Amino acid sequence: MKKISLSRYLVEQQRVDGRIPPQLRLLLEVVARACKHISHSVNTGALGEVLGTASSENVQGEVQKKLDIIANEVLIEANEWGGHLAAMASEEMEGIYVVPNRYPQGEYLLLFDPLDGSSNIDVNVSIGTIFSVLKMPDGDRGVDEADFLQAGSQQVAAGYCVYGPQTTLVLTVGDGVAMFTLDREQGSFVLVQENVMIPADTKEFAINMSNMRHWDAPVKRYVDECLAGKEGPRGKDFNMRWVASMVADVHRILTRGGIFLYPWDKREPEKPGKLRLMYEANPMGWLVEQAGGAATNGHQRILDIQPGKLHERVSVILGSKHEVERVTRYHLDPSSPA
Ligand code: AHG
Ligand code: MN
Ligand code: MN
Description:
This protein has seven helices and 17 strands. The chain is of the alpha+beta class. It folds into two domains: 188 residues, Fructose-1,6-Bisphosphatase, Chain A, domain 1; 129 residues, D-Maltodextrin-Binding Protein, domain 2, CATH 3.40.190.80. The N and C termini lie far apart (46 Å). One manganese (II) ion (MN) binds next to strand 5.
């Protein structure tokens, strides 16, 4: 098998109709390098003393794990000096990180969830890094937080790296989804699948069932109908999976289909959801759409949401197109038939 490295793939993307500019190619190479570094740290586990909790909280009041902080630092250090970025924003930092004056400033903005699935770190279950790339608004001088507040449809690249049995980087630059698995001997990501497609129908759903009593009626209805199986209105049996790492759940959906829901619920009614629009929902939503799936908040396409603030949260329903359309219809028209 002829091995195509991520570097070669990106160079070819750059050549085909200039699909990605050189600076964006550089940015993606650097993000991939940082993910390799994080993958190595993750793999060392207790031996590398990377497990356990740090003595700090992030801006959302969540206790930070050591790896949340390590991964955040790795991404910043790798990306700040290359000249491709103006600023970065992270789930783990309150404000934006502007590229220091001693380095040249580029025209891109990088957003990330450095370590997704933190509750799985210490139990040796798949975790990941999620990233999203935006461009500075035209003619803008001096970067500030408002420059980041762009709808997901404005992303120029997005992806994630899942640290599981294999370390796999999944990427879109707006021309479909490609997957690259880390060849540790060569030290490079190697293309394993192009044009990833999510089947429009599925028999597998992913939701944290322990929150059922807090759900809104349309979500409850959808899951009840899945659980009713062959004898119910759907006329087929469904299977359920919940890894509690969005990267791992989305990776399964990109691989074999399925629907993922982290909906708004009544636990904290003033919060639109648990997941973060800019670091989780937008990049994952775009990947899923690029693979033929759909992503909504129950009422509208995730990528059309105009963010009001950096750490905004959102209700997320994504995956196999027909299922996402069904849940969205149950929200928009609760009396519509199954
Ligand atoms: P993070 O570790 O970045 O805070 O994200 C965790 C998210 C997401 O990865 C996952 O789908 C979800 O939280 C799991 O939440 P529950 O523990 O409520 O199931
Ligand atoms: Mn996350
Ligand atoms: Mn995280």
